[in-house]
Design goal:
The structure holds 2 protein chains of 2 kinds. In chain A, 83% of the residues lie in helices and 0% in strands. By secondary structure, chain A is mainly α. Chain A has 2 domains: 1-64, no CATH class; 66-115, no CATH class. The radius of gyration of chain A is 20 Å and the shape is extended. By secondary structure, chain B is mainly α. Classes of the chains: A mainly alpha, B mainly alpha. At the A-B interface, helix 1, helix 2, helix 3, helix 4 and helix 5 of A face helix 2, helix 3, helix 4, helix 5 and helix 6 of B.
């Protein structure tokens, strides 16, 4: 387990370094993700300790954004005033996003079938 | 009487000053939420994150603990977000083999889907007069939370509100997606999976995996790719729109 965590931290560190030095617009962890992905594609397999840690992170990803989300307490008055705007924006947007993505894919799937 | 109460007060001062209290609060409320979620057959309405945030927020409000104080302790959990982002490379890699011949349609669908997501959320929120803080935090809400918060810092909007909107989006998407798909009569699992991965990220994936393995794999891929594309493109687009 520690082995997998070390691997992830090293890729993260490398990502942070490149982000600071070369690509300040892209978050370091995202660069770390890309480096690790490239590494995995070259190696052709996920080593077992890495796979284990990655799976447990995926399973409990939600826990990690609890501390930041509790900060909602600072925005409660603001959110209360704009409750309608926030609800409408979130609700309509999520329906449109899922519907559009699905329809675009359906369109392409149909076209490749026709050819 | 006073002598008996004093030690407790001292212990309390010690505990609330150390990171331990915030860590226990964060982990215990999440554990409780997760147990309820599993008991409810992983119904997306019983979201462990939402339960944890509600309980923890209520607790620090009730004991009058400033958020900054709470965060000083909870930051150890928060720090792992970056590491978890790097770990997303693994599900993306595992899904790569199923991507063959679908890379172009998937990328196009992701780009159009994200554009619709951002355009509609930002448009509606600003039309209804929500403040800059809220409107700005709508940009990254369809991206998986760890990446969304990274983007929020880059485009100088509140990572907190972004995280909250992201969790809300995930819940709504996971609940509504099956109805939307059935209404549009979309049957192929890979399309259903991809759409839910773009629209409802992490929670959508969990939902997709519980229904169908193929849908889950595509949802993971879509979420990862969407996160990476958004992280690269969003700061550029937002800076362009603002200038």
């Amino acid at each position: 387990m520690i082995n997998g965590l070390v691997q992830l931290l090293v890729w993260q560190g490398l990502g942070e370094l490149v982000s600071i030095l070369l690509l300040p617009n892209i978050p370091g962890p995202v660069l770390g993700l890309l480096f690790l992905l490239a590494f995995l594609l070259i190696k052709g397999e996920v080593n077992q300790p890495l796979g284990m840690v990655a799976d447990s992170f995926r399973q409990h990803l939600g826990l990690l954004f609890v501390p930041a989300s509790v900060g909602v307490i600072l925005f409660l008055p603001d959110l209360k005033t704009h409750a309608l705007a926030v609800t409408a924006a979130l609700l309509i947007s999520v329906v449109l996003t899922i519907a559009t993505t699905a329809l675009v894919l359906k369109f392409f799937a149909k076209r490749t079938h026709d050819e | 009487m006073m002598n008996e109460r004093l030690p407790i007060a001292e212990i309390w001062v010690y505990l609330s000053g150390s990171p331990l209290f915030a860590l226990i609060l964060t982990l215990a409320t999440y554990q409780l939420g997760y147990t309820l979620y599993v008991k409810a057959n992983r119904n997306p309405i019983v979201n462990p994150v939402a339960i944890s945030v509600l309980l923890a927020t209520f607790c620090i409000y009730a004991i009058d603990m400033p958020y900054q104080k709470y965060f000083e302790g909870a930051q150890f959990v928060h720090f792992l977000l970056g590491t978890a982002t790097v770990a997303l490379a693994v599900p993306i890699y595992r899904g790569c083999s199923s991507l063959k011949g679908k890379l172009v349609p998937m990328t196009l669908a992701l780009l159009i889907g994200s554009a619709v997501s951002i355009g509609s959320a930002v448009g509606i929120a600003s039309m209804l007069g929500a403040g800059d803080n809220i409107v700005g935090s709508m940009y990254a809400k369809s991206v998986t939370a760890p990446i969304a918060m990274g983007i929020a810092e880059r485009i100088h909007v509140s990572p907190t509100l972004t995280a909250v909107f992201t969790v809300a989006t995930g819940m709504l998407g996971a609940i509504l997606a099956p109805f939307i798909m059935n209404f549009l009569r979309i049957k192929p699992w890979w399309i259903r999976g991809t759409a839910i991965g773009v629209g409802a990220h992490g929670l959508g994936i969990t939902r997709a995996f519980s229904v169908n393995e193929e849908a889950g794999t595509y949802a993971s891929m879509a979420m990862g790719l969407n996160g990476v594309l958004s992280a690269v493109l969003l700061p550029v687009v937002v800076n362009y729109l603002r200038s």
